Every structure is written in C-alpha cells, then in structure tokens.
C-alpha cells in the first residue's frame, strides 16, 4: 500500500475512485462485429421502407382492388402508416426489457420479428385469392414490423455507443445510418430493376413478392451476427454492480426521472426525422405530384443524393469526434434554417441540374444529423435506463413528427396553396432542434453517463 493511499482522507479517496474508474479496453475486432450487426438491422428496416415505398402502386392493385388508383394508393400507405402507430408501444416494451435482460438478447428478438414480418408479406395471398383476409394479413405484418422497429434504432445505437471507444464513438456510430441509406437504396434499387425487367402483369402476379422474400436470408444473416456478440461492457458492468440482482426500473421512472433528457431527445429526433422523411420520403412525391416532374428522374435524383450521403457518413462521423457533436448538429440546424427556401426554389426550377443541386444541398445538411445522432442520443441517458428512455423518446418523436411529415406537408399545401410549405416546415423543425442543441451537453470524447471511460485496444484502426 502506498503512502499516498494511507494518508489520503477517505472522502478524497472516494472522490478519486468516482472520478477515475478503471477504463474499459475495447477489442477492435469485437467492436467491428458489433457495428456490422447493429447496422444490418437498420439496413433491413429501411430496405423494407424502400421496397414498400417504390412498389406501393403494385401493392394497391394486389391487396386493395377498388378500381380507383388513388384509393388503392391511400389504402396501401394507410397500412404503411399503421406501423408508426405501434412503434412507441414497441419502444415501451423492448426498451425497458433491454435495460433489464441485456441489449444483445433484445436486438436478436427485434431482428427475428422484423425479418419475419417482411418475409410474411411476400407470402400473403392476393385479394383475388382470399378476399378481405389479404389486406388484414398485410396490416398484421406491418404491425409486427412497426412493433419490432420500436426497439431497433434505440437498441442498435445504444449497442454501438456502449461498445465504441470514447474517442471514436461518432465515427463508429455513423455506420448505423450508413446501413439505413444502404438498405433504402438496396430496396428501392431492387424494385426499380424489377420494374424495368418485368412486365406489369408479371410484377402484379408474382414479381412483387421477390423483394419481400429477400428479407428471409437477410434476417438469418443478421440474427447470426447478433447471436455471436457478447453483451456490451457498459451493461455487463451495470449488471455486475447489482450482483446479479438487478432491480426493475419502473417505466414511470424512465420518463419522469429523465424528463429533461427526454425533452432534448424529442427535440433532436424531431429535426433529424422531419428533415429525413421530408427529403427521402416526401420529395419524390413532391417532384411528381406538385411540380409534375418526371417520376423516373425524380427517383434517380433521390437515390443519387442518398449514395453521396453514404460516402459522406463516416467522414462526418469522424469529424464529430474531433470537433464535437454540438457544432455539427448546430451547423445542420442553421443550414436548414437558412438554406431550405433557396434549396426548394432551386428544386422548383425543374431542370435536372437545379433539382440535383437543391436536393444535394439538403442531403449534405441531413448528413450533419445522420452522422451525429447515433452517438449523441445514447449519451443523453445513464446506462441503467439508456435503452428504455431512448426508445420512448425516439419513437414518440418519430411517430408524432417524423412519420407524419409527408401527410402534414401535403395537407398544408392543400390548405394554403403555398408550394413553399416543405421549406417552412423544415425551418420550424430546425428552430426546435437548434434549441435542443443549445441545451444539450457535449459528449464527444467523454464516457457515457454512468459508464467507465472506454479506450481502444491495440491494433485499432
């Protein structure tokens, strides 16, 4: 025992112990596996999103043969939107469960449910075969997908954040949204290829099933990767402190005990998802429906923008590790506040170059959020409630604000006749997000709340 430890007062020793716990040394190979397994689940979620969005007209004919194309499309997107209604319920179930039994186990379950729900859609008989049972089964499959998704993003971002070294959390977390973009491009691209290769009759009779059936093998691969992982060091340490007798944290405590962090989470997710769904989900419809732009060119522009965003993701994630999450997110908010109107005016010019420039500007601003949020959001909450509180805040915000963006903006344009409403809506979201950034603490390079410092092991890239 050293002299310093003998003469130091007990209170000082406690302070030093509390402030400087032994760091967690991460295994680079295990961290890479964790990132791949988490990102694949997000890719699968957005693969389904891309498939469903791009093949919606065909699904309307298969499941809702009313003879009215508009009614068919509305019914199809109604089933799509139903998944958003149950996302908060999934978050309230899977989030607290992840804090109680472990992140890895819950993420394995959500992967199975997502894959099963998507695969099941490809097996549902058509309306012509079983009548009203077809749309009922479609709705049931969508509800399973939405329920499982409620535990997916928060769990995946928590999983990566708790595995990553403190100084590389932004870079590693950015790969989660890389998976999002890759999944959407993969789903939309597959449908585009099939539409080009198959006749309309073949696509309606059997071709539409193929993209959904692809989810089966993807789900098996994702489940294999997730089952190979160990529990995160942060959760393992928390469980060890409780000596295998972890008390349940009431759902109410996850809300009332974390109300400030939850409000910040809702504000950050609001600007993130409003701009995300505006650009990637609503803009193709805006180009074709409101501006009468060529549909094929509009979709290709969106896919091109997403491809550029994919390339920028890891570089922007690494930047957040160097300069901080707050400056990068604040730049995104300021950019949407100042550039939404000019970008939309460019898009409304209608030429391919103008549309590409306007969409590209919005896409690069969106990267400020997609590269930052997977590392910034988990850092709002302590380890014992991180999965649960983040699931609740994230999914409530997505369901209320993100998923409703296309519907609300369409209604605003219809009520006012103002074609600039998409820009004004993004600006309003940017103001709310900017306030949340102002109130949040910087987390780059620092341990997660309630966790020991985390450093990279040898041979880390």
Order of helices and strands: HHEHHHHHHHHHHHHHHHHHHHHHE
Percentage of residues in DSSP E strands: under 5%
Per the principal axes of the C-alpha atoms, what is the gross shape? Answer: globular
Helix content: over 70%
The average pLDDT score comes to 84
Number of strands: 2
Question: What can be said about the biggest beta sheet?
Answer: 2 strands, parallel
Summarize the topology:
Blueprint: H1 3-7, H2 10-19, E1 24-26, H3 28-54, H4 56-63, H5 69-101, H6 103-121, H7 127-130, H8 133-149, H9 152-163, H10 169-197, H11 200-207, H12 209-213, H13 215-227, H14 233-241, H15 251-256, H16 259-290, H17 295-323, H18 325-348, H19 352-370, H20 373-376, H21 386-402, H22 405-416, H23 421-439, E2 454-456
Parallel strand pairs: 1-2
Helix pairs in contact: 3-6, 3-9, 3-10, 3-13, 4-5, 5-6, 5-8, 5-21, 6-8, 6-9, 6-13, 9-10, 9-21, 10-17, 16-17, 16-19, 16-21, 16-23, 17-18, 17-19, 18-19, 18-23
Structure characterization notes:
The chain has helices at 3-7, 10-19, 28-54, 56-63, 69-101, 103-121, 127-130, 133-149, 152-163, 169-197, 200-207, 209-213, 215-227, 233-241, 251-256, 259-290, 295-323, 325-348, 352-370, 373-376, 386-402, 405-416, 421-439, and strands at 24-26, 454-456. It has a two-stranded parallel ribbon with strand order 1-2. Mean pLDDT is 84; it is low at 1-18. With 461 residues, it is mostly helical. 78% of the residues lie in helices and 1% in strands. The chain contains 23 helices and two strands.
